[in-house]
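in:
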């Protein structure tokens, strides 16, 4: 017996299926059918692109590994290595300047410095 359940276009492990339907979704107001159909739609839309990106990452990593093995006994040349990384597409030219506009951002994110979010209350700072 397979440990996977087919739900629309996707296969879901029984443990995940049970956790979602019995532990995660109750109380959220989201119907199981809606959740699974939405997840299936997202996976079908972005799955192929994600797979292509993973293949590209693997190909670039293989090129980097080969370069490092080929040059392991040579003096380190950061300029040559940077040129190599640019040649294989790992380093790309910087794009044009841009500005991000936001609104309705919680003060903890936009105004409170990051370290202040993690300092224990009993640590006087």
């Amino acid at each position: 017996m397979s440990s996977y359940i087919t739900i629309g276009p996707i296969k879901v492990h029984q443990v995940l299926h049970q956790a979602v339907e019995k532990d995660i979704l109750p109380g959220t107001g989201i119907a199981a059918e809606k959740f699974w159909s939405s997840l299936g739609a997202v996976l079908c839309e972005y799955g192929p692109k994600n797979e292509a990106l993973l293949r590209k990452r693997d190909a670039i990593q293989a090129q980097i590994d080969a370069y490092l093995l080929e040059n392991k006994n040579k003096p380190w040349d950061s300029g040559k290595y940077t040129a190599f990384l640019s040649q294989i597409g790992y380093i790309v030219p910087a794009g044009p300047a841009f500005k991000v506009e936001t609104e309705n951002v919680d003060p903890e994110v936009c105004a409170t410095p990051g370290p202040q979010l993690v300092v224990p209350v009993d640590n006087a700072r």
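note: Residues 4-93 form one domain.
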